[in-house]
Amino acid sequence: MAHEILIVDDEDDIRQLIAGILEDEGYETRQAGNSADAFAAIAARQPSLVILDVWLRDSEHDGLQMLEIIRRDNPTQQVVMISGHGTVDMAVSATKMGAYDFISKPFKTDVLLHTIGRAVEEARLRRENVELQERAVDRVDDIVGNSPAITQLRQTIDKVAPTDSRVLFTGPPGSGKGIIARILHSRSARKDGRFVILNCAGLQPGSLETALFGAEPEDGGPRRIGVLEEAHAGTLLLDEVADMPLETQGKIARVLQQKHFARLGGDTEVEVDVRVLASTNRDLREEIEAGRFREDLFYRLNVVPVSVPALQARRQDIPELAQHLLERLCRAKGRSASVLANDALAALQAYDWPGNVWELINVIERLLLNLPASGEIRSDAVSAAIGQGAPDVMRWDKAPDMMNQPLRDAREAFEREYLLFHLTRFSGNISRTAEFVGMDRAALHRKLKLLGIQNAVRTRKVNAS
Question: What are the tens digits of pLDDT across the range 146-168?
């Protein structure tokens, strides 16, 4: 992503000189010769950095006055001051007012580039620090697994990431739609730009529009920069877009078409270059039928539809995903590596995961809180971490009943629970279940029919879907 730098100087040849130097280094530039033009340029789009001359002829404000206003309206804006008549006191005053640095004219090219490079890098590191805090829960940085559903998802992301196409992610709550969207951004041509998330759920129209478009200063307060402007040259994810009010839906549909908007309380058009992604756990076609979602916005967002599967639809990925999460959490917490025993992995596979990937992350965290000294996690710990929803056969709460039955009945009860558990674990796949339990496929079919398990498996699949 090319950083955009606004050069403010009353001498045209100086502006052209600086612009030529910066553009040769890959920066994008805009120019202004006085305060009015500079403020108009900033209002049109917030630059990455401002190079600002102290003395400006034929200008309403000088550079120091402009610095004060710029920093008031946007306290995070990086500004480098330049002057041909600078003094130590002037430099000290400028830095106290928030300037990143002060350069005297005539300047050396390497000094200018070094200063600008440091200023841009500091802004980038500050921004990344905020983003890392925001994404502290996004602990999955790759698409883990080899199930058919996840393989297809990975292929789709690899194909669509390098393009600029809009993508609509659908899937149940907790399935990791936001994580997949972040992965798509990291593999795109915009990966050096910002990845910004706006959660549309629970926001009233006024606050949502301020968050989207920003707002001009009121009563001496700062200018608010909206997520559309923050994500310029990057990616914006509209999370749970079905919760966006109809009035706001119309406005965002126009922005997607026109690629410009005005901040609230202003009339200056802000032009942005943003890749917009969206996610929802609802059926937007049903929402359209019910009059709760605009059809034009749906078609603008749904250029590439991507379905993120529920965790129970890809049970074979659970062992690899769980171990991946466990290793990441151990590293993050500075702990030695832990291992999930085979019976623990089986217990994780047998659970239905109504909370999907996020529930799995929470369970792995609970397991780490009560990690045994051996570092090996067994099925009883998994059952305790899952709680009341753990599979019955793993909690063995039927053991007292079995002990009060004749041997033949108890054996049948155990076989039924044992086979039902592994059928669930392997998503009803008879061949994989037969291989694991050590039975011939035909013999397993007969045993399932004898124990009346086949109907139970079908019922469980229907209820799960």
Answer: 999 999 999 999 999 999 999 99
Domain assignment present for residue 149? The answer is no
Residue 47 lies in a domain: yes
Domain of 171, CATH number, reads 3.40.50.300
Q: Answer with the one of 395, 411, 434 that is the final residue of a domain.
A: 395
Under 8 Å between Cβ of 366 and 385:
yes
Does 142 fall in a domain?
A: no
- Close Cβ partners of 160 (under 8 Å, ≥ 6 residues apart): 167, 184, 304, 306
- What residues are paired with 264 via a beta bridge? 215
- Model confidence over 96-148: pLDDT tens digits? 888 999 998 888 899 999 999 998 888 877 776 655 544 444 445 678 999 99
Indicate the length of the chain as a whole number. 465
HEC states along 52-80? EECCCCCCCCCHHHHHHHHHHHCCCCEEE
Q: Which residues pair with 211 in a beta bridge?
A: none
The answer to whether residues 355 and 297 belong to one domain is: no
> Which pair of tokens denotes residue 322?
């769980």
Reduce the DSSP state of residue 174 to 3 states and report it: coil
Q: How far is CA 166 from CA 142, 249, 348, 407, in A?
A: 21, 16, 35, 62
Tokens, residue 393: 């056969």
Q: What percent of the chain has pLDDT over 90?
A: 49
Distance separating alpha carbons of residues 183 and 185, to the nearest angstrom? 5
Q: Are 234 and 261 part of one and the same domain?
A: yes
Could you list the residue range(s) of the whole structural domain that residue 453 is in?
399-464
Q: Which amino acid is at 350?
A: A
Domain count, the chain: 4
Residue 214, token pair as written in the block: 């920003």
**Residue 89: both structure tokens together:** 């006191």
How many Cα atoms occupy the beta-carbon half-sphere of 6 within 13 Å?
A: 24
372 and 404 housed in the same domain = no
Q: What is the DSSP letter of 220?
A: T
Whose structure tokens read 């830095």?
A: 95
DSSP letter at 390 equals S
Q: Do 330 and 300 lie in a common domain?
A: no
Checking if the pLDDT of 286 tops 90, the result is yes
Percentage of the chain surpassing pLDDT 70? 89
Is residue 261 domain-shared with residue 374, that is, in the same domain?
Answer: no
Q: Is residue 147 part of a domain?
A: no
pLDDT at 459: 44
**pLDDT of 464:** 43
- Tell me, yes or no, whether 207 and 303 share the same domain: yes
